[in-house]
Every structure is written in C-alpha cells, then in structure tokens.
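Collaboration report, partner site 2.

Our partner group contributed sequences for two proteins of shared interest, and the home lab folded both. The records are reproduced in the order in which they were received, starting with the first partner submission.
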Amino acid sequence: LAEGLFKAGIATFRYDKRTFVDPGSMPTNATVDDEVTHDVLNIIHYFNNNDTFRNYKLYIIGHSLGALMAPRIAQEAKGEVAGIVMMAGPATPLIDLTLKQVTYLDSLFPSEQQHEALKEIKQQVHYMHRPAFNENSPADSLLFNQKASYWLSYSNYKPLQIIKKLSTPFLILQGEKDYQVSMTDFNLWKKATKGRSNMSFKSYPGLSHLFMQSEGTPSPKDYESA
C-alpha cells in the first residue's frame, strides 16, 4: 500500500505498535487507547507542528484494529486530519467478533483441540457479558489472558455512535470475502452513517481481510499468499 501511494506521489509514515516493539512500555492497566490511539495522536501532532509539513494534508489509514479506533482518533484529533480511511474495520463488539471468528474456524477445521478452544472462548465471552465482569476480574478468565482494563476499554468505546457525529471525511473499504471482519460490519457502518455526506463506502468482490484475492472458501490460507 505504501509503495502504491508513493508511486502516486503520496508520502506515508508507518510504525510498529508498541505492543510489538516495546510491550514493557504499556501501563499496568493498559487500555486500547494505550495500544493504539495515543501513539497515533502523537504522530498527528508531530506532523502538524513541524514547519516542514505544516501545509501538507494529513490522512490516517487504519486496518482492522486501526480502523476500529479511527472514529476515536478522528474525534480526539479535533480537525487536525484531512480525512480517514478505514480498511476492514470491525463494527461488531470485539468480544463477540472473536467468538464469531473462532466458531467459523471450528466449522472449517473441526478437531478436538479446536472444539476445546471454542468451548473456552464461549465461557469467557459469556462471563464478559455478565454484570460480574468488572475491573477486578482476573485475566485468566478473560479472552487472550488480557487484563480487565483492556477489555473494559473496548466495552466503553462506542464507535458507531461516535462516527455519526463526526464531520471528518471517511472512506470505508471492505473485502467481500473477509471472514474475520465481514460485510455485516461494513453494513453496520453504512447504517450508522446513512445520509452523512462525509462518508464514502467501497467493497471489493473476492478480496480477503488483507485486501488480496481469496480463492475458494475464505480461511487462514488467504494469508499464505501474502
């Protein structure tokens, strides 16, 4: 994507998330904003306060989790970006989306190990939807052994409500053979922003979560050609 934009005369800045390059820098009770939002906002502020780039138009492109957090980023940037591109952005709550993904994989690759993984995730999701789930819930009872603060930050984030109030231009893109973030999510974004002139949508037949051609039944094999 960066190479294609460069050929069109558009410069890009990419970075690795701190959970990948410096997980030790995450606070004890980390949230999704600590993982994504704060660093993106720091990058936005850097370019907008640098004389070299002051007259440039700045656009944010987010994929998957980055796309999910795009409405929050646009809200917090307060007009500092010219537009947002969301690629394969989940609109379904992430807890439920995880269960949906694992259920789909279980149907594709049934095995005792896969069934046990699905059973555990169902138990965790059920617990995380109960009133008993709170900031003191132990991580080993939650998805991916992540702390309660992290999952509560998702529960408290309402992207479909936020995006409909924004005036920032958005381009929302979706692969139609994406099994991880489906056309259901794409249509939820559409429904939430119906009638808003700052919203544009485009879906691509045959493309996977990676926006690459998917052959046959969508599955993790889509990644093998990446």
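Second partner submission, folded after the first:
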Amino acid sequence: RKDNKVAIIREGFLNSIFDVLSENKPLHLDFIYGSIKNEKFIPLDGQQRLTTLFLLHWYLVQMSEGIDYEWHLKRLGRFTYKTRKSSLAFCRVITDSANKLSREILNETSVSEVITNSIWFLKVWKRDPTIKGMLVMLDEIHQQIRIEESIENLLIKLTDTRSIVFEFLDLNELRQTDELYVKMNARGKQLTEFEHFKAWLQSHVSRSKIQIEEEQWQKNIDGNWLDLIWTSNGELFGVDELFYY
C-alpha cells in the first residue's frame, strides 16, 4: 500500500536486500510457512517477502542485457497468484517473453506507468489489490536500484548465490492445515509503530560497529529496560511511548 507506515517497511526491506546484493552480506528472512502439493509450494505466510523477491528478479531480468531472457522468464513463470483470476492473468502476462519491456523506456518513466500503458494491460486490473500492490513495489524497486552497481551483477548475485535465505516450515510434516495460519493471525492487529521501530533498531545495532553484544542488547530492550519503564510508569498503557524518551 501507499500509506506512510507501509512505505517505511517496504523501503527498509528493499534497502536490506540491496545491501546484501551489493556487499555480499547474508540476509535471513525468518520463517515462511506453507505446504508442498503436487511438487508446488503453497505459502500460507510469507507471500509478501516471496512476491518482493519475484518482482525484483523480474525487474532485473527486464533491465539486463546479454542474459538468457527466455530461461529466466520460464523460471519466473512458475510463480503465480490464485487469489483472483486477474492476479493469475497478470503474473502470466508479465512473464510472457513477448511482453518484454524496453530498458530505455524504464529509464525515462516509472515501471507502473510503462506496464499500465502497455497494450496487454487490462484497465480492470487497476482494481485488483494484488496487482496494485505489485505495481507499487516495482516502482519502489526502480527508485532504489543502485546505479553504481551493474544490473547484470545484481541479477547474478540474486540467482547464483545463497545470500538471501529463509527457514521453511512444512505444515504437512506437522500435520497442520490452514487452521494454523488462521490462529496465527487471529488477533487481526497491525504491529505498532514502536514494534517496527524496535525491529529496525535491533537490526541497525547488529549491523553497526557499536560495541554492544547483540544478545545483551535484546535482553535489555525486551526485558530489563521494559521492566524498569513498566515499574516507573505504574500502568500497562503508554509503555511504548516512554521508550522514546
């Protein structure tokens, strides 16, 4: 989405990915839950992370020169959405080799404009939330692309190295169904601004040269400091805000 809270998360996630690809540092994307049926992986949680990697791969393929274009698109064509027929059709169309985008055009305007102005793009797709979200992410990728880094090198690092990894939890092995995902998301609440801030801060500390042991830092921010603020405040509410002071 385009609201500010989501924009901060989106920009931060992409920035972390580009850091990995530019500096050859590892990036761990935590757990992705799902199951494998008929040799197809069906995620129940982790769709946004996987979709971001798919869109980044697609963008780099469109912008690269001297690569096996057909080979890459064939691999990308395995990724699809089945939430709505329009999402399914969109994924098929953008991975069709006949619809390659011009690198020169992409350098002059936004990706979303190029795609929505293409003859194969259906106007009704603009109402599909999944497609709208993918277009927003593609524009952000285009905005953040590191011009000092070769597009082709970024593509090689993304596809030929194991810089970006995640833990896969197969629900079939746990004998679980979609009910687990429903329970995981039962409260239906967005993370607070402080929760996002704390995640960013812990990541920043772990990457920086600050002489603090990461384990001790996490113990303090999630334990000792929290207990101190909670005790001094005397109330359950307002604890997050006091951390800023």
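Feedback sent to the partner group on the second submission included the following. The radius of gyration is 21 Å. Residues 15 and 144 are 7 Å apart (CA to CA).
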